[in-house]
Structure formats: C-alpha cells, structure tokens
Amino acid sequence: MGGPDRPRRVIGIVNAAAGPGLSKARFMEIRQSLHGEPFGPVYLTLRRGHAEEWARTFRNEAGYLVIGGDGTLHEVVSGMEIRNQAVAVVPLGTATSLARDLGDPTLADACGGIETGRRGKLDLVAVIMRRGDGSVRRCRSVSSVAVGLPVEVARKAVRWGHNLGPLAYPVAALAAGLRPPRFEVSVRYDRGRWTRKTVAGFLAGNTRHVMSVRIFPDASPFDGRMVVLELVPGFLRLGLQGLSVLTRTRLYESAKPLAARRVSVLFGAPRPVAVDGEIYDGVVRVELRMLPGGLTIFMPTGAHA
Question: Same domain, yes or no, for 260 and 207?
Fold first, then answer.
C-alpha cells in the first residue's frame, strides 16, 4: 500500500541575473525564508527560457514564488498549468510591472499571502506570434506586448540595466526617442475591420505600469480588458503623445489608449516583438486575446486588488 499523498508545494524560481545580479547571501536568505511547508525547493534560472522549463517540470505542485522581473514571470506563466496552479511575485530586476501594480511586495509579503492562502484572479493575455520562417510561438503575457519604439527601449534598458539600475528604462526611452522608428502595420481590434497605418510603435498593456513606468493609469489586471496605444511617428509628435499619456492631458489627440479584448497586428516586414520585456525576433503577425481571470495569484500581504 502506498503512503499518504504528499501536500502540493509552492516552488521558488529565482532569476539569478535580474537587476544587478543575485548575491549568495541574498539567495541563502530566500532559501531560509522558504523552508518547510507549504514551500518546496528553490531553483535558479541560468539562461533564457529556464524559468519556463522549471514551470513545466513542476505542474503537479501548488504553484510558484517568482523572484525576478517581468521576463521571469512571463516565462513562468507561459509554462505553468494556469487552471490548477497559482503564482506569487517578488520584484527583482529593472522591469517589474505587475509587482508595482501590487505595491512592490517584499519576500515577507509574498510568503504571507502563500501561507494564509489569500488568492486573487488576474487577467492574462494569450499571445500567438507567427514568424517569417513559418514557426509559431504561443505564450502568455501578464503586463505588456510591444512593437517598434518600446522594443528599442527594452533592448537598451537590458544592455544598460546593470550600470543604471532603476534609471535604465527612463534613460533608454530618452535615447531611443531621439530617432524613433517608422513602419507600416495592419491592425484589427475585436471584431472590427483591418486598418492600415504608419506608426512608430505599438503597445498593448494589461497593467498600469509598463517596464516599471506608470503609462496606463486606467489599466488594471483585474478588469478583463487590455489598453492599446498606437505610437505616432515623428520626434515632436511622439514627444507630445508621450507627455499627454503621462500627464493625462489632451496635448495630442491620439494619446488616449483604446480598450480591447482581442487585437491582431500584421507587419509589412518581420519585426521584433517584446512580450513582458522578452524580445522575439522575426515576427510577421501577432494575435492577442484576453483571458479574464486567467491567472490565480497568491495575494501579497497588504495588496489591494
């Protein structure tokens, strides 16, 4: 006869390279905090895609405590079993969009939410990216999907993150904005018609913060919709649009984000797409679909949904 079933545990997944890097002392502190039930072992991610591999490995467990940035969380939610698992978040890195919406929970806040069993439901975005070589990448986004200028910002911020820390994204945005891109897309929202446009970028957000900057003050990961901003080409117009979005004024008419539950974007030529800061190259089409309440999270102590 077999013994009693072992309780399902929460697995720790830690990005060793997030932000300025993880010290040995900090990692030992994390392991000590996650000692005993309901916690299981703690695993480091050592390369891109590693967090998704760990999440797929432990789909029979209760869930994950993710200590890292947006990219680490993106990989975990893309690999986990969202119907039967939950996730907790502790920010560590240069881009921590969902964590900022939740009040930047500490390790103690996250552990408290796990131990008390306090849970909430937040929205996910199902993402399908079709590449020019015929391959398809299916994944999930918690925070944002971006094309054009925001991707250039993300690339520069990752490159400069170790030296600039929290200033990496504002400095990268300033640098990338000096020579904004210009390209053609065809866009369809919900069940509407396809529209051809020339843009500098495209940003679909599910959280108020995008790349740790409060860009969409009216967005929420709990309202069943995403907000979409088409970035206008041209340095001056782009600057006015950005200022309008950040100040919530009408300096530029096209600055108001759109609300949608489905978005499809077709590119005239292959382009890089950033999903929660993770960059995928050679994409010719991206399709986004809201999954309302698709992700169960352990609500950190003190967070307000």
Answer: yes
Same domain, 267 and 135: yes
pLDDT tens-digit readout, 34-73: 878 899 899 999 899 999 999 999 999 999 999 998 999 9
Task: State residue 232's pLDDT score.
Answer: 74
Same domain, 146 and 276: yes
Answer yes or no: do 118 and 150 share one domain.
no
Residue-wise burial string across 87-102, b where 16 or more C-beta atoms lie within 10 A, e elsewhere? bbbbbbbbbbbbbbbb
Same domain flag for 263 and 137: yes
DSSP state of 300: P
User: Do residues 177 and 149 touch, judged by C-beta distance below 8 A?
Assistant: yes
- Same domain, yes or no, for 51 and 184? no
- Give every CB contact of residue 108 below 8 A, 6+ residues apart in sequence: 33, 301
Tell whether 242 is covered by a domain.
yes
**Claim to verify: residue 168 and residue 116 sit in the same structural domain:** no
Residue with the larger pLDDT of the pair 75 and 259: 75
Q: Domains in the chain: how many in total? A: 2
CA distance 224 to 203: 17
Using omega within 30 degrees of 0 as the cis cutoff, is the peptide bond preceding 38 cis?
A: yes
Would you say 174 and 186 are in contact if contact means Cβ atoms under 8 Å apart?
no
* Amino acid identity at 211: M
Q: Which backbone phi and psi does 266 adopt, to 5 degrees?
A: -115, 130
Contacts of residue 180, defined as CB under 8 A and 6 or more positions apart, other chains included, come to 148, 149, 200, 201, 231, 233, 234, 235, 238
This prediction has a pTM of: 0.86
- CATH number of 105's domain: 3.40.50.10330
Contact 256, 232 (CB under 8 A): no
Rounded Cα distance, 143 and 56, in Å: 21
